Amino acid sequence: MTPKLSAFLRDSAPATPCLVLDLDRVEENYRRLKAAMPLARIYYAVKANPAAPVLDRLVGLGSCFDAASFEEVEACLEAGAAPESISYGNTVKKESAIRAAYGRGVRMFAFDSEPELRKLARSAPGSRVYCRILVGNDGAEWPLSRKFGCEVEMARELMVLAGELGLDPFGLSFHVGSQQVNTAAYEAAIAKVAMLFTDLRDAGVKVRMVNLGGGYPVRYRQEVPEIDDIGAAIMGAMAEHFGNALPDILVEPGRFIVGDAGVVSAEVVLVSRKAKDDPVRWVYLDIGRFGGLAETEGEAIKYAFRTPRDGEAEGPVTIAGPTCDSTDTLYEKSNYRMPLSLDAGDRVELLATGAYVTSYASQFFNGFKPLAEHYV
Amino acid sequence: MTPKLSAFLRDSAPATPCLVLDLDRVEENYRRLKAAMPLARIYYAVKANPAAPVLDRLVGLGSCFDAASFEEVEACLEAGAAPESISYGNTVKKESAIRAAYGRGVRMFAFDSEPELRKLARSAPGSRVYCRILVGNDGAEWPLSRKFGCEVEMARELMVLAGELGLDPFGLSFHVGSQQVNTAAYEAAIAKVAMLFTDLRDAGVKVRMVNLGGGYPVRYRQEVPEIDDIGAAIMGAMAEHFGNALPDILVEPGRFIVGDAGVVSAEVVLVSRKAKDDPVRWVYLDIGRFGGLAETEGEAIKYAFRTPRDGEAEGPVTIAGPTCDSTDTLYEKSNYRMPLSLDAGDRVELLATGAYVTSYASQFFNGFKPLAEHYV
Questions:
Q1: Residue A212's pLDDT is what?
Q2: Where is the Orn/DAP/Arg decarboxylase 2 N-terminal domain (chains A, B) (predicted)?
Q3: Which ranges of chain B does DSSP label H, i.e. alpha helix?
Q4: Nearest-angstrom CA–CA distance, B210 and A92
Q5: B119, B139, B152, B278: which is closest to B217 by C-alpha?
Q6: What count of Cα atoms within 13 Å lies in the side-chain half-sphere of residue A55?
Q7: Phi-psi category of B7—alpha, beta or left, where left has phi over 0 and alpha has psi -120 to 50?
Q8: Which residue of B has its CA nearest to A98?
Q9: Distance of CA A148 to the CA centre of its chain
């Protein structure tokens, strides 16, 4: 937790549950990533936290933006981003949304299928397009399914078709999975992309860009590799496979930029046991999976907790949210322990919760309002 | 789909995604349940769909209400419900919420632990309280974890304590899991509750109520038992275990009341393949897990689809939502098939989606607004 976050929580004691996010840390993370990969252009994945203060700060730093929807395109423009700094990175778009983004000046779009490419040719003529390919996600704590991307052979044909349809077959993209701690995943993906790059060049398609996606990890309960080491591994792989003819390089960090800049402040609603002699206590918080902590699904992302009783004797706990939904349980199998003296009314902090929290929150499940947001 | 829903969709062609819900069907379901279990008092589980038109209609029918939060208590009161018709059924409540509900006249509360009971004694003195016990969930399509309820031995002690604390130890409750198709689960739970009932009576605690919870199933892709048969099995078990000394009986249906009264109307955004010869198409809709279809997690609830091309040749599909989140995939393993001619722009209907849709929807994940709601 940054000193600014600590000070705000101490001095303001905001109503729980809430997210407090340190914008200076956002800037610091942007600069760290830039330093680790100086040749890469950063497209912030807006979906990680689309709040205006975050976008404002990043616009000021010269960031570009990866938008998942036309609504996110608009949010970037409202924050002062130039249309040419925006990539519409969702491979699944309504044609009306493509048309709207094109109308606002957006000229870069992702795709992974022929029907999508034809929509782009019709409604965003002449735009730069990049094809997402399927790659391995080994090592990611939040691995992606096959939902996005296509096989390499199809990507090759589609990139040729893109040119024939009057689009600019600008580049290729992939995603190694979120919270990826294994640099080998990037290396394997880069090797795959480089082969396709060469194939396409041979076929006369002047592909010029590689979009490395996101997935750069944030420290939760476990240490993760340093971004400098990840950057070095990635740039090493790029140099190995592309030599001196490096293409434009894009990265789409979301979690890395905002994750450890935020903290969720919550209140303990109840600490109880299911039977008198049960060693495991249930700790119920006033935020849960439907209040913003969606990434605890399957106990995938394991947030670290701070309590006012830290340092006292601890025991095992199951941690759950406040709703009447029994799937609203955060951690039952991940060996969490909390102080035995923890009690209802105690405030707890969930560290590094700046990413994928506010936007996931349900609008009013069980009548609970979404968590409040404070940007400091 | 009811004729009223069909007519509304045909005549109004509302923007997608949206929920359209037939209030007459809500009434019909209420009456069907009432007829199947005439001795039970119905407490509608507000969380299933808290919209004012639904609550209004149920108030008019004389329904009682099961609220999960103070906000839901308020919604019931605003719809004209009497405070004494409201049960605050969440076993996990902030003491401030208990106080607020008590202040508005609510006098019935659930609990499953000593700390919660002590909160109630302090902030809702003299109220009727009921203890939730843990029971088996075999046969439920949306089984509950051990999050709510306590072991019988603890329940016994807590009910004695309730009286000592000046509360009215009114009853016992359980929940056999949602979308429960196995009446044996109710029978086993009733047997368990009846034994505790006798124990408590012997201990001088005048427990007078059994809350059977919810879980009454709705037809999705599969046939489910008729509510009359479920009601008969439940009342048979009650008679077997309680004889002529039947306690007050409460039921808390949510899904059963609103589930098949609603339909989600969505649009196909893209139909694509991952490789040219891949037999499985991906069908992307403009609504997904984070837009309201949260119950498709783990492919638990399997909605039935209607498309404008039904009857034409079909093939296997994976069905996914519109967001850049790869977990936003609805069905990959449940052998869904859709017409081969299905295309972007087609409208599809998801049947029996009146429950647990609007309230689960994320406030703006990926920039997408929550689905619109129409009550007809």
A1: 96
A2: 24-259
A3: 3-12, 23-36, 52-60, 70-78, 95-103, 114-123, 152-164, 183-202, 227-242, 255-258
A4: 50
A5: B139
A6: 24
A7: alpha
A8: B269
A9: 15
Which helix (H) or strand (E) element contains residue A185?
Answer: helix A183-202
- Token readout for B335 is 């052998």
CA dist A248 and A52 (Å) reads 28
Burial pattern B322-347, b for ≥16 Cβ within 10 A else e, equals bbbbbbbbbbbeeebebbeebebebe
CA dist A249 and A32 (Å) reads 17
| B43 contacts B61 by C-beta, under 8 angstroms | no
The whole-angstrom separation of Cα B56 and Cα B45 is 14
Query: What number of residues does chain A have?
Result: 376
Of A46, A72, A368, the CB nearest to B69: A368
Q: CA of A356: which chain B residue's CA is closest?
A: B365
CATH superfamily of B50-253: Alanine racemase (3.20.20.10)
Residues 6+ apart with CB under 8 A from B277: none
Residues A295/A301/A302/A308 CA torsion (nearest 10 deg): -40
Average pLDDT over residues B342-350: 98
With CA atoms as reference, the chain A residue closest to B177 would be: A326
Distance CA A3, CA A320 (A): 28
Residue identified by tokens 């913003």 is A292
Query: Which residues touch A140 (CB under 8 Å, ≥6 apart)?
Result: A176, A177, A178, A179, A180, A181, A182, A185, A215
Say what angle helices A114-123 and A152-164 make with each other, to 10 degrees. 20
Same fold, B50-253 and B260-375: no
Q: Are B338 and B314 a contacting pair, CB within 8 Å? A: yes
The residue extents of the domains of chain A are: 50-253, 260-375
Which of A87, A104, A92 minimizes the C-alpha distance to A46?
A87
Tokens 């108030």: give the residue: B59
B111: pLDDT confidence band, cut at 50, 70 and 90? very high
Q: Which of B84, B87, B166, B91 minimizes the C-alpha distance to B134? A: B91
Beta-bridge partners for A263: A20, A351
Nearest Cβ partner for A327 among B114, B297, B329: B297
Q: Helix, strand, coil: what percent of chain B each, to 5?
A: 35, 25, 40
Tokens 């956002």, residue located: A26
Strands A314-320 and A329-331: antiparallel
The ipTM (two decimal places) reads 0.96
A145 and B297 within 8 Å at the Cβ level: the answer is no
Nearest to B230 by CA among B14, B25, B24, B37: B37
Which member of B345, B358, B366 has the closest CB to residue A72? B366
Are the Cβ atoms of A270 and B116 closer than 8 angstroms? Answer: yes
**C-alpha Rg value of chain A to the nearest Å:** 22
Query: CA–CA distance from B340 to each of A231, A277, B286, B288, B327 (Å)?
Result: 44, 58, 19, 21, 25
Alpha helices, DSSP H, located in A61-179: 70-78, 95-103, 114-123, 152-164
Checking if the pLDDT of B145 tops 80, the result is no
Measured between CA atoms, how close is B244 to chain A, in angstroms? Answer: 32
Tokens at B172, concatenated: 């016992």
Closest C-alpha to B97, from A290, A342, A307, A367: A367
C-beta atoms surrounding A333 within 10 Å: 9
Q: What residue has token string 């006249």?
A: B105
The rounded distance, in Å, linking the Cα atoms of A271 and A348 is 13
pLDDT in tens, A25-81: 999 999 999 999 999 999 999 999 999 999 999 999 999 999 999 999 999 999 999
Beta strands in chain A (DSSP E): 18-21, 40-45, 64-67, 86-88, 108-111, 128-132, 140-142, 168-173, 178-180, 209-211, 248-251, 262-272, 281-285, 305-306, 314-320, 329-331, 337-339, 347-351, 372-375
**DSSP code of B68?**
S
CATH topology of domain B260-375: Lyase, Ornithine Decarboxylase; Chain A, domain 1 (2.40.37)
